[in-house]
What does this fold into?
Amino acid sequence: MTAIEAAIVASMDLGKLVLPEAIEAVYGYGDDVAILTPDAIITLPIQTFHNYLTDWLDALIEV
It folds into this structure.
């Protein structure tokens, strides 16, 4: 996973722009993913992470 993917998911989850440079770490454990930013620790199931990316790509393609 890249910082860009993590930034997209973090932005969608927090409802504000998170730049890839702001991603401090991404950890996978079990069926969850944790994204660490200076403002938050976001913990999501892997399926939700994939859904956010899929939704973002679908929106990008429709434009």
Notes: Helices lie at 3-14, 46-62. The chain is about 45% helix and 25% strand.
